[in-house]
Amino acid sequence: MRFNRLRLNGFKSFVDPTELVIHEGLTGVVGPNGCGKSNLLEALRWVMGENRPTAMRGGGMEDVIFAGAATRSARHFAEVALVMDNSDRLAPSGFNDADQLEIVRRITKDAGSAYKANGKDVRARDIQMLFADASTGAQSPALVRQGQISELINAKPKARRRILEEAAGISGLYQRRHEAELR
Ligand code: ATP
Ligand code: MG
Fold first, then answer.
1. Which residues are annotated as a binding site?
2. Domain 2-182, CATH 3.40.50.300 — does that match?
3. Ligand 1 contact via 15 beta carbon (within 6 Å)
4. Closest listed residue to residue 67, CA positions, set 20, 4, 14
5. 14 alpha carbon to ligand 1 midpoint, in Å?
């Protein structure tokens, strides 16, 4: 499934609706310090189900909502949409009803996050599993954060194993086994 578009609205510094079109091949995002390059990658991670505020460089998940600036007041929600190509119909069942798959995550102050897939309400876990199985998940090693290379080098063996499991595409299985053991 190819990523086609990323849309942001009220997410971190992207207070106005912004659309990033992802063409085939290599995409580079260039800009001065603090212009929002890392925020874009975090938006991608977030719409794929990231639930650790620290991965968003925040203290709480609501910190992803535009917090206001000198000339703009704060927003009360943030929304990110990821549009993927599904013309080969390889999306798992439940997500495979159209040639495009659009995942939307929205967080509202004091009301938490809600997800939609092609307009239908879905659970956070469904989204996390979708991307974990596709090995492109929010914590996937394919998304390399600033400073992550040195973290990998310094990681304890258990943490490094998790990263390798993600790379091998079996973290979805790992999660399901964990849930089965809890039952
Ligand atoms: P660098 O080149 O230094 O890595 P960058 O382009 O990656 O910079 P980001 O870290 O993506 O920049 O953006 C940081 C900016 O986003 C800061 O100006 C910060 O104030 C702003 N920002 C982060 N969270 C919010 C928020 N909730 N509301 C408003 N602005 C925010
Ligand atoms: Mg950055």
1. 32-39
2. yes
3. no
4. 14
5. 9
Given a cut of 80, whether residue 169 has pLDDT beyond it is no
**The ligand 1 atom nearest the CA atom of 13:** 30
- With beta carbons less than 8 A apart as the criterion, state whether 91 and 3 touch: no
What ipTM score was computed for the predicted complex, to two decimals?
0.98
DSSP string, 17-85: -EEEE--SS-------TTSSHHHHHHHHHHHTT---GGGGTSSSGGGGB---BTTBPPPSEEEEEEEEE
Whose CA is closest to atom 26 on ligand 1? 12
Q: Per mean pLDDT, which of 6-15, 19-28, 145-154 is the most reliable?
A: 6-15
Mean of the per-residue pLDDT values of the chain: 90
> Is 34 touching ligand 1 by the criterion CB < 6 Å?
yes
